[in-house]
Amino acid sequence: TDLVKYYPIKGGVLRRKVGDVKAVDGVSFELLKGETLGIVGESGCGKSTLGRLLMRLEEPTSGSVVFDGVDMYAQKGRAMRKLRRDIQIVFQDPYTSLNPRKTVGDIVGEPFDIHPDVVPRKGRRKAVQDLLDLVGLNPEHINRYPHQFSGGQRQRIGIARGIALNPKVLICDEPVSALDVSVQAQVVNLMEKLQDELGLSYIFIAHDLSVVRHISDRVGVMYLGKMAELGEEDDIYGRPTHPYTQALLSAVPVPDPTLRDKKEQIVLKGDVPSPANPPSGCRFHTRCWKAQDKCKTDIPLLELRPDGAGEHLSACHFAQPREIIETIDVSDLA
Ligand code: SF4
Ligand code: MG
């Protein structure tokens, strides 16, 4: 609720604070049990910082995270350790997030060292082998090193580590972005299988709109530290109401050549402004083709708009659904 994370900028010889990078600036949403909430946006929009705040890898400047009725940032010691078991993370890069000097058994079993009460020491090897099996790796390979695995297999190792403590929520920060498209599909399918079997909830952070569409039940679109639009996957992709979402979707290439000419491309002017000095009013107004005077002064709230269906929220004063030619091909992910 109202999560804010500012990083101070220091300048001059005295290294005095001269400003803030407003990485996350007032973000609120809910994650439901068993669902996948996709978070999309260009690099620098704050989506990874948001993921780290939800894991308490960083403390927020203000705002709160309530998990199962418990205010996470108010917890200490044992209660916080319990919460840490429930919320785990899978990182982007399977090449750098695994220690090359440790065996797969050590890597996947690492969470048991931090939470020794989960599996008794005697049972660790078996527990790790079961995890390898669950993510589609050969349990016999427990003594191998990360470099002996392909990129997709390494991400399976990262996932095995992520689910070792039987968490309730998995935060996945660009989990397949570093992988080839064909391998992406296998890893995404594995994640869906695990979600069903283990009753996991996912926060799936990515910049790839097709992968997010494929896996998500709901999607949030971030721009410069704020949520621009939030809703069911069908609504966000089928009838987006925020001009930024419309532009993002219009930029996705059309696989079907007969549709290619029909697709309208919305080209945004300029670059993303610096999060150290975001525009007044609506942060998108410097690049928005629909911007009016009001947009420069009034911050649009993320709320239900007149034409929005169900729980489709939009942070635009002039939100209006716009059909974007269906261009996202999810068949190759099926
Ligand atoms: Fe564009 Fe104004 Fe809507 Fe912002 S509030 S997205 S500037 S029309
Ligand atoms: Mg799903």
Automatic annotation (TrEMBL):
<protein>
    <submittedName>
        <fullName>Dipeptide ABC transporter ATP-binding protein</fullName>
    </submittedName>
</protein>
<feature type="domain" description="ABC transporter">
    <location>
        <begin position="1"/>
        <end position="249"/>
    </location>
</feature>
<dbReference type="InterPro" id="IPR017871">
    <property type="entry name" value="ABC_transporter-like_CS"/>
</dbReference>
<dbReference type="InterPro" id="IPR003439">
    <property type="entry name" value="ABC_transporter-like_ATP-bd"/>
</dbReference>
<dbReference type="GO" id="GO:0015833">
    <property type="term" value="P:peptide transport"/>
</dbReference>
<dbReference type="InterPro" id="IPR013563">
    <property type="entry name" value="Oligopep_ABC_C"/>
</dbReference>
<dbReference type="GO" id="GO:0016887">
    <property type="term" value="F:ATP hydrolysis activity"/>
</dbReference>
<dbReference type="GO" id="GO:0005524">
    <property type="term" value="F:ATP binding"/>
</dbReference>
<keyword id="KW-0067">ATP-binding</keyword>
<dbReference type="InterPro" id="IPR003593">
    <property type="entry name" value="AAA+_ATPase"/>
</dbReference>
<dbReference type="Pfam" id="PF00005">
    <property type="entry name" value="ABC_tran"/>
</dbReference>
<dbReference type="Pfam" id="PF08352">
    <property type="entry name" value="oligo_HPY"/>
</dbReference>
<keyword id="KW-0813">Transport</keyword>
<dbReference type="InterPro" id="IPR050319">
    <property type="entry name" value="ABC_transp_ATP-bind"/>
</dbReference>
<comment type="similarity">
    <text>Belongs to the ABC transporter superfamily.</text>
</comment>
<dbReference type="InterPro" id="IPR027417">
    <property type="entry name" value="P-loop_NTPase"/>
</dbReference>
<keyword id="KW-0547">Nucleotide-binding</keyword>
<dbReference type="GO" id="GO:0055085">
    <property type="term" value="P:transmembrane transport"/>
</dbReference>
